Amino acid sequence: MDRNEAHLTPIDLSALLTLYFVWGGAYLANKLAIASIDPFIMLAIRLGTSGLLLFALLRLLGWTLPSRRQVAGSWLIGQLLLVGGMGAVVYAQQWVSSSLAAVIVSTMPLWNAFFARFLGRRTRPVEWLGMVLGLAGVYLLAGEPDLKLDPKALLVFVGPVSWAFGSAISTRVPQAPGLMSSAVHMMGAGLSFTVIALLAGSRWHAPSTTSLLALVYLIVLAGVVAYSAYLHLLSRPLRPALVTSFAYVNPLVALALGIGFAGEQLTRAGLWGVGLIVLGVGLAVSGRGR
Hints:
Elements: H1 10-33, H2 39-60, H3 68-92, H4 98-105, H5 108-118, H6 125-141, H7 158-169, H8 178-200, H9 209-235, H10 240-243, H11 246-261, H12 268-288
Helix pairs in contact: 1-4, 1-9, 1-11, 2-8, 2-9, 3-7, 3-8, 4-11, 5-6, 5-7, 5-12, 6-12, 8-9, 11-12
Membrane topology: Multi-pass membrane protein
Main location: membrane
Subcellular location: Membrane
């Protein structure tokens, strides 16, 4: 282990497990939430509420307000991670199954390695191999019926690219400290989705009980808890392979939930694509952590 890397603490382990299972379940929760709630309205409520709850809690605990420079930096990263990253995926889930969306999003570490190459970090041969295998898997998934239902379904591929770029530059942009950054990310994204919903003419209709329960899950667990866990891990001197390992655990959790509880299916070529992506991501993040 590199002398600058920290040992995994119980808090770090809890954060990892939270990302594995809570974010793995978030794809099915997204699908259930937008079944009767407009995607932009759902995202505005989800992220805006999560951000406000976290901000209020931090202020009650005595956290100081961030500077304008820190707010601006946190706002930028929040737009990349949540508006471009999460928003594109949730919008596409109107046509794409939760399991397929999770697998495509799992390519995020491959894009992260790609962007890191241009930010001055050397790319190892095993990472290039991982990227090639992952992109081959994406090619196989592109033939899935879900992605042919509507051209807008292809927006699902924008999500991991935007999230990876935001993650790659997050350490180079001044941000609010710790959990306060999470709050600013989510409040800023919630405001952006409110504007997008108004411009798109989105309308509120009485949601089903299932959609409301899914929204509560997304606000509390996937929003406040898991997103804060992710930023905690980013702030720790841990191996990148460990921090990004959720990217190839989430699709397996989402696949199990989608197939077991929502009756989702993938073609044989799609299952081969899943295998290649998981293998590619595993090689890329393990090569980065050496």
